[in-house]
Specification:
The chain is an alpha/beta fold and 248 residues long. It contains five helices and 16 strands.
């Protein structure tokens, strides 16, 4: 009985992956058209490679994000903006791997990047190097810069900046972070400059990092604490530790 159930589960997963391949393939061509790119046939190899990577991203997200775990795949692909942004990145990055005139590849890759930003509020530079099974959750306001290197199985929330330190006079070369495998980055955090973040790190909300972080580290901002009214034990609010120390 258990063996039969395991076979059924495996078949369901295989059917889900097969269904995902078809839908992602169709959606990829829509992404090109939305970006104003109509000669898609010459990018067939890049599309095939990007779709394979995107399926891994999709299935990883479904395993790790309970909000979408039991929803139809069509819902995640067509409605959830985070996967839309990741797919656009995979397509744009795939173009830059082709042996074709570089100038046109760059133009079309950036078109995909800016189309994704307009649709989702997430900006991932096509030259960023991102490993397998990327999961972005919520995602709005997240930026991943040009020379970022991000390992496998990353989990990133909204308003995360993987950026440079300089603003107006940034130099060429490596300007953005190098981040290991299985790193989780919570909402509102910034990792700035060519720092190195080791494997299996957890970075809490609203953290700003400008130095290296060894593998297995856990970094959090100062936690919120309760503020009590002088005449009542009732909690009247919570503030960050940088906020008020007593009630007015």
């Amino acid at each position: 009985m258990l063996k039969r159930r395991n076979i059924s589960i495996r078949r369901t997963a295989e059917e889900e992956a097969r269904n995902a391949r078809k839908i992602i393939g169709d959606f990829a061509f829509v992404a090109f058209r939305n970006a104003g790119i109509y000669e898609v046939d010459r990018y067939a190899d890049a599309v095939a490679s990007a779709c394979r990577a995107a399926i891994d991203d999709l299935m990883s997200s479904r395993l790790r994000d309970p909000a979408i775990r039991n929803k139809p795949i069509e819902c995640q692909i067509s409605i959830h903006s985070t996967f839309c942004a990741v797919l656009h990145y995979r397509l744009a990055s795939g173009l830059l791997q082709l042996d074709q005139p570089w100038d046109q590849l760059q133009v079309d890759a950036m078109r995909l990047c800016f189309s994704a930003r307009s649709l989702t509020g997430i900006e991932i530079h096509p030259e960023a190097r991102i490993g397998a099974r990327l999961c972005i959750d919520h995602g709005w306001g997240t930026v991943i810069g040009q020379t970022t290197e991000l390992g496998d199985d990353a989990y990133i929330l909204n308003n995360v900046i993987l950026g440079g330190r300089a603003i107006g006079d940034a130099s060429d070369g490596k300007r953005h972070p190098t981040i290991g495998d299985r790193v989780q980055i919570s909402g509102g955090s910034r990792i700035l400059g060519p720092v190195v973040i080791g494997d299996d790190c957890f970075i809490g909300s609203d953290v700003t990092l400008t130095t290296d972080l060894p593998a297995g580290s856990r970094v959090v901002n100062k936690p919120a604490h309760a503020i009590y009214a002088a005449s009542s034990p009732a909690i009247i609010g919570t503030f960050s530790s940088a906020g008020a120390e007593r009630c007015p």
